[in-house]
Write a structure and sequence with these properties.
The chain has 142 residues and is α+β, with helices and mostly antiparallel strands. The chain has one domain: Aminopeptidase, CATH 3.40.630. The chain is built from 4 helices and 6 strands; from the N terminus they run ααβββαβαββ. A 6-stranded mixed β-sheet has the order 1-2-3-4-6-5. The radius of gyration is 19 Å and the shape is globular. It starts with 10 loop residues before the first helix and ends with a strand.
Length: 142
């Protein structure tokens, strides 16, 4: 192993996608071919055309992974978050997702996600400054 060098790849190497292609080829032996990561982006604007919230996520291996869902303080409790999440889940279904997953800090939106049908399946206590992060999932009905 003395001829192996660990290094920081160039931007060109990262953008080439070679590493991801190699990983997919390995995975295909076990689960068959699957689509590459497919983005799911949804935004909300108010009557003045101002951005008031949005959701950023992606579908990978039949799972919607919600990376970010945010609604401005003034637009909260008006159904905006629910509509964003429902729209993203529908887009994800159309892309072949059968489940959804996300994580949220305890001070963020855990209760909101529970109301939307998500269940907590794990958590990391004392993730930061004594707060936990909850890992949540939901089966997406067809």
């Amino acid at each position: 192993m003395s001829d192996i060098e660990i290094y920081t790849p160039t931007a060109e190497e990262v953008h080439s996608g070679e590493l991801g292609r190699r990983m997919r080829q390995f995975n295909y032996q076990y689960v068959g071919e699957y689509a590459q990561v497919q983005p799911v982006w949804v935004s909300a604007k108010d009557g003045h055309g101002e951005l008031v919230g949005g959701l950023r996520g992606f579908v990978f291996m039949h799972w919607l992974n919600v990376e970010l869902l945010f609604v401005d303080e003034g637009a909260r409790h008006k159904g905006v978050g629910r509509m964003l999440l429902e729209t993203a889940e529908q887009k994800a279904r159309e892309l072949g997702a059968r489940n959804a997953t996300l994580n949220t800090f305890e001070w963020q939106a855990r209760a909101f996600y529970l109301k939307q049908g998500y269940e907590e399946f794990g958590r990391i206590d004392n993730f930061i400054q004594g707060f936990y992060v909850a890992y949540m999932k939901k089966a997406l009905e067809p």
